[in-house]
Amino acid sequence: MGKNGRFGKEYGTVVEKEKKSRPGWKGTSYVKKAEPANAKRTTADEQNNSSTVSEAAAPFELQQLLLNIFRDTFPVVLGSETLQALLQQVKKALYERDFAQAFGKEEFLEAYAIRWSPSRTLCYQSILLDISKYTTKMFSSYKTTRPKLDQQPAADDAVIMRIICFGGGAAEVVAFGGFLRCLESAFSRNGDGDELRAFEGMDIISFSGESSPTVLNQQSSTDICLSTLGRSPRFDMCLVDTAQWQSVVYKLHENITSPPPLSKYASSMAKNANEALAAAANFGVTFRQDNILEMTGSQLVDILGGQPGQPMLLTLLFTLNELYTSSIGKTTAFLLNLTATVKSGSLLLVVDSPGSYSETTVGTAAKKYPMHWLLDHTLLETQKARGSESAPGWIKIISEDSKWFRIPENLRYPITLENMRYQMHLYRRV
Length: 430
Known about the structure:
Helix 2 packs across helix 9 (170-190), helix 9 packs parallel to helix 11 (246-256) and helix 14 (320-326) crosses helix 15 (328-341). This protein has helices at 37-48, 60-73, 75-78, 83-95, 99-102, 106-115, 117-130, 132-135, 170-190, 218-221, 246-256, 268-273, 297-303, 320-326, 328-341, 371-381, and strands spanning 14-15, 24-26, 29-31, 52-55, 159-166, 204-205, 214-215, 233-241, 283-289, 313-317, 347-352, 357-362, 365-370, 394-406, 419-429. 36% of the residues lie in helices and 20% in strands. By secondary structure, it is of the alpha/beta class. The chain is globular and about 70 Å long. The relative contact order is 0.17.
């Protein structure tokens, strides 16, 4: 986030459904009232738009667990009488593109995390499930890595996926925690010594606290291919940003890897079933404060893990357009350094506001270029121009120019959640 380019004046085009009245309250979470007429008009507008409308792919219970992590990590902030004032200060600074102010205090970072990150988390979770048939194919080339002596023990047959989130923060760490849970659940049910198979809406994923299993949404689960996994998954995740998100990220990670708090009146069955979203041994998270646009090639190699020897998943989630806005030249150099560093088979996931344009000067005239055009020009065409024998460094696997993510109606959270519209592009290093 910060000046690495997380948000401009539209805050990543988070689209809010305006309410005529505040929701009612019951306990720690609100109970949504009847949907007003203007919300129905918003839905109609979404459908009339050329965008694809996407429902959440993850089971409802998992989405609620992800929201609960934000709620349980920052209960003091959520219950603070100064929360609205904090949010207004952050929003004003973001609008003015004063990222040093918006993310300059821990209280601002926590306020941002509980207000805008939950909606993005659910959206990212949906995207990760949509592309899982590509990410899980990378597992077959991974080497089993035994944990260091100072780490918690892990199964000998575990395999690690390396994930680098440029401009990453609160939303990414929780979304990947949920994605890991999906993979672990599918593996535990289907990986009884045999190779996992792709499941076509019939396999069941169960989550703690639920006495009955939940069937994955059939439309999205057909895209989930775990046939090449064969070993239990682990994530090694690094988030890179200029803002000081360390404390927020590590607090969220602690709650992801710890059993959620229960009421003192919870039944013995509930207590026995209570478990963490992800095991600490299987979900390693580190944060590095750095300016993406100022990194040298050697610094990038260091972030990617010294001498990267296996494919990895790289993400730029609501980050790339702000990087281009800051400097097209530096952003292009960063992407070329990334291309030269990562191994063949690595994936690059780019998610941003639809219709994002960046302006650059050609001669004496300024011209605006679509973000996805600049990205394609760098990844798919630039190396061709260097010589007839040259080949592009990447191939594009998926491209969505405009897509809606809609929040399920019955999810509970103390703050109103919002729908999102985004563009998404997935590339594979050749």
